[in-house]
Amino acid sequence: QKEVEQDPGPLSVPEGAIVSLNCTYSNSAFQYFMWYRQYSRKGPELLMYTYSSGNKEDGRFTAQVDKSSKYISLFIRDSQPSDSATYLCATPNRDDKIIFGKGTRLHILP
Amino acid sequence: DVKVTQSSRYLVKRTGEKVFLECVQDMDHENMFWYRQDPGLGLRLIYFSYDVKMKEKGDIPEGYSVSREKKERFSLILESASTNQTSMYLCASSAHRTGIAGELFFGEGSRLTVL
Q1: What's the CA angle centered on B6, arms B5 and B9, to 5 degrees?
Q2: C-alpha closest to that of A84 among A5, A6, A22, A9
Q3: Coil, strand, or helix at residue A73?
Q4: Which of A2, A27, A58, B47 is buried deepest, with most CB atoms within 10 A?
Q5: Do A43 and B109 touch (CB under 8 A)?
Q6: pLDDT top residue among A9 and B37
Q7: No. of helices (H) and no. of strands (E), chain B
Q8: Residue in A closest to B102 by C-alpha
Q9: pLDDT tens by residue, A55-93
Q10: How far is A37 from chain B (nearest CA, A)?
């Protein structure tokens, strides 16, 4: 089993919709989780991070971790065409190397 | 504005050629990384370095080597390029090895095509 798994999409939603992006992870020892956003032909950049319990909100974005089911979610409210990108979940593994999900391509349709 | 700069955005090389991919960061970061990104495979770590003159193999080092002569510069070398090395190569740096301070800052990528 891969340490972090993510549905690659693509996911297409209309502008203004709530978007839910998800990952699962295998190791219950993982402590915190990150979401990177990658625009087309650019490198990924850190969007937000959260520790292994509860939610974190930043504007229209909410990151959530469910430790019991080893599930990570990123919610985007009032989605905009500028949110169209690939979103990668990530976490440091036992060796403190950051491991990434494969990324979900998101298209927000105007 | 912090920056990781990859000197070549697009390269086309022939099989067997030696390829150098250069990366420079201006954040005085100790740690630097090379990843490749392929559709369906995601980001895979090739090599990393936690200090000048130091290098460690990542998950897929075969066919690659690296050089870190100065703190700000980390080069990826393909000694004899092959078609299966056609990919997007991403350089990254971080201030710390662990914790959220280990946030990775990425360059814009170098898209390499090997014919």
Answers
A1: 130
A2: A9
A3: strand
A4: B47
A5: yes
A6: B37
A7: 0, 12
A8: A98
A9: 899 999 999 999 889 999 999 999 999 999 999 999 988
A10: 11
